[in-house]
Amino acid sequence: MTGPGTAAAFRSGFAALVGRPNVGKSTLLNALVGEKLSIVTPRPQTTRHRILGIVNLPAAQIAFVDTPGLHREARRALNRAMNRTATSALEAADVAVLVIEALRWEAGDDLALERIARARRPAILAVNKIDRARPRERLLPFLASLAPRHEFLAVVPVSALKEDNVDDLRRTIAGHLPESPPLFPDGEVTDRGLPFRIAEMIREKLTLELNQEVPYGIAVEVEQLKEEEGQLAVDAAIWVDRDGQKPIVIGARGERLKRVGRAARLALNGLLGRRVHLNLWVKVRANWADNARALKQLGLE
Ligand code: GDP
Ligand code: MG
Predict the structure, then answer these.
(1) Which of 90, 163, 239, 263 is spaced 20 to 30 A from 121 at the CA atom?
(2) pLDDT digits (tens, 9 = 90+) for 243-280
(3) How far is the CA of 86 from the centre of ligand 1 (A)?
(4) Ligand number with the minimum distance to the CA of 158
(5) Where are the domains of the chain?
(6) Atom of ligand 1 nearest to the CA of 164
(7) Which ligand is nearest the CA of 128, by number?
(8) SS3 at position 140
């Protein structure tokens, strides 16, 4: 892409989005890539896996990596696995993008910054949610107050939700990647296949529907995909932690599961650009979130 005589060399590398839970890392990944790759809910700890999203610019290719939120409380095997996932993505990154919320600096932000320093990654600070920073006059002093916390390569205010200043962040990150030819073939957007993306979409709708009722005890596994009369037929299992959670997920007369199925089906129709038929089953695997083998089977290591 860079012809002879062009001054700027091509840059390419990994940029890991890290931070405490719920600051908007996944929303930001989707905005940076321009496609919904990572699921988003108002609940912390929605992201469990490393999610890759590739962006091609005229003189750079950025491989963004969304990560589970870093947290100190990690009693369950699932939470420890999530912390490990975030830490190893950080260690493999060329640049760390620390995501925080505008007008707030919390202990969790210090923890994330500690991890970045420990991994010795150069860091860009993305100050997210500027759309809801009130009063507005406090934003500039807040941004100024961040400089002494760390030697950030840059501090970039953004709104992932409103897609405000995301372009600036993308360019800033690209400018700090190493000179290198592209790492991924043109046209590749993620490394995750269809079953994973479908399972995640179902988990998003389920999490939104359940609110606080089944805390963190849910996993979704696509068991079968097949073509059926011009539709994509999906069989998926919803794994719960305990017997008692099954009726909660199903709801009275199955209403809740139906609502989840409908929301997921509509979202998948949009995502895949085709009609999807969903069969959802609720299954119990006792204490899967504390069970290393179950985590492995569900792709959560
Ligand atoms: P993560 O846990 O860091 O991945 O955060 P998510 O991307 O899942 O977002 C957590 C919550 O913050 C969701 O309700 C998002 O809609 C919300 N959110 C994310 N970015 C923004 C933003 O720029 N502005 C506002 N107002 N909300 C946002
Ligand atoms: Mg997330």
Answers:
(1) 163
(2) 999 999 999 999 999 999 999 999 999 999 999 999 99
(3) 18
(4) 1
(5) 11-175, 194-297
(6) 23
(7) 1
(8) helix
Q: Virtual CA dihedral for 127, 131, 132, 133, nearest 10 degrees?
A: 50
| CA 111 vs CA 240, 283, 301: distances in Å | 30, 36, 22
As given in the structure block, the two tokens for residue 257 are: 């599961």
> CA–CA separation, 295 vs 301, rounded Å?
6
**Both structure tokens of 233:** 């037929």
**CA–centroid distance for 145 within its chain:** 27
DSSP tag of 76: S
- Identify the CA nearest to 54 among candidates 258, 190, 210: 190
Closest C-alpha to 97, from 41, 55, 140? 55
Spell out a b/e string for 162-178, using b for 16 or more CB atoms within 10 Å of the CB, else e.
Answer: ebbbbeebbebbbebbe
What protein residues have CB closer than 5 angstroms to ion ligand 2? 25-26, 47
Of the pLDDT bands very low, low, confident and very high (cuts 50, 70, 90), residue 84 is very high
Structure confidence at residue 5 as a pLDDT band (50, 70, 90) = low
pLDDT of residue 2: 47
Q: Prior bond to 135 cis, omega within 30?
A: yes
- In angstroms, the Cα distances linking 186 to 29, 62, 83, 183 are 19, 12, 31, 9
Share of the chain above pLDDT 90, in %: 86
CATH number attached to the domain at 194-297: 3.30.300.20
- Tracing tokens 């999490």 back to the chain, one arrives at 207
In sequence order, what are the residues at sequence separation of 6 or more whose Cβ sits closer than 8 angstroms to the Cβ of residue 141? none
The second-level CATH assignment, the architecture, of 11-175 is 3-Layer(aba) Sandwich (3.40)
